[in-house]
Amino acid sequence: MNSIAKFIAIALMFVTTITMAQDFQGIATYKSHRKVDVKLDSTQMGSEMHQRMMDMLKKQFEKTYKLSFTKEESVYKEEEQLEAPQPQGMVMVMVETGGSDVMYKNTKEGTFANQNESFSKLFLIEGNLTEHKWELGSETKNIGDYTCYKATMTREVPMIESGISVNGDKDLGDLTTDKMETITITAWYTPQIPVNNGPGNYHGLPGLILEVNDGSETLICSKIVLNPKNKVSINKPTKGKKITQEKYDAIMEKKMKEMQERYSHDRDGDGESIEIRIGG
């Protein structure tokens, strides 16, 4: 009788473990910080205005994102927030070509769907997830209550991804280049949360990525809620013009060139005008 009871207890524990694994879900909140180093000579901008511009840039790049995830799927999107008012006498034009409004990933199927609004048009970029070639390290550190392990990979990117123009003195196009450089991306993941997922398009490690840095931007997890009372809702985006990543990149490049030409011929206006391009 005791043997039968023990067998039933073990069987129930096994079934419970499987059920918990199947229903495992959570919400991770990430904060973004970008390294900004803008150097201008005194003839273009005074030290006081330069500091005001730097403060504005810092706030522009401090964003909050939420990653809702299960064992196989996730949705990553920015939390809406009010834009900070710009100081009087200064106008800043921010052009981001690498952001995403809603990023859906299915790590089991190896697919993604990125719903992105760019230049007032909604796109739905679909394709296969990039297979990142991570190198796993033995170095560890704690992020909150979680022990994280270091992983790195390299990626080829344009040598200059940002352009700055003050009062139209220099066009955005003057600062771009076709040359490429190799950057190192560093991630910290925790096996304590057994999902091969992370913020943005990062994934493929044996645990949730809690921090990632590409040399200029850092995304770090500030809060994690596992198995919340209200079930996590993960819906693949369906709205927008369906397009591949390659075609989307080509459209964005064309739009950026048109924008550069427009700004190069439009140099009139009051106050300082700062134009910044951020690549992705």
Q: Bin the strand percentage.
A: 35-45%
Q: How many structural domains? A: 1
Succession of helices and strands: HEHEEEEEEEEEEEEEHE
On the 0 to 100 scale, the average pLDDT is 76
* Terminal Cα span: 65 Å
Description:
The protein is α+β, with helices and mostly antiparallel strands. It has one domain. The protein contains three helices and 15 strands. It starts with a helix and ends with a strand. The relative contact order is 0.20. Mean pLDDT is 76; it is low at 4-21, 90-98, 161-176 and 271-280.
What is the strand and helix layout of this fold?
Elements: H1 2-23, E1 25-34, H2 47-61, E2 64-70, E3 73-78, E4 90-96, E5 102-106, E6 111-118, E7 121-128, E8 135-143, E9 146-158, E10 164-166, E11 180-190, E12 208-213, E13 217-226, E14 241-243, H3 245-265, E15 272-278
Parallel strand pairs: 4-15, 7-14
Antiparallel strand pairs: 1-2, 1-13, 2-3, 3-5, 5-6, 6-7, 8-9, 9-11, 10-15, 11-12, 12-13
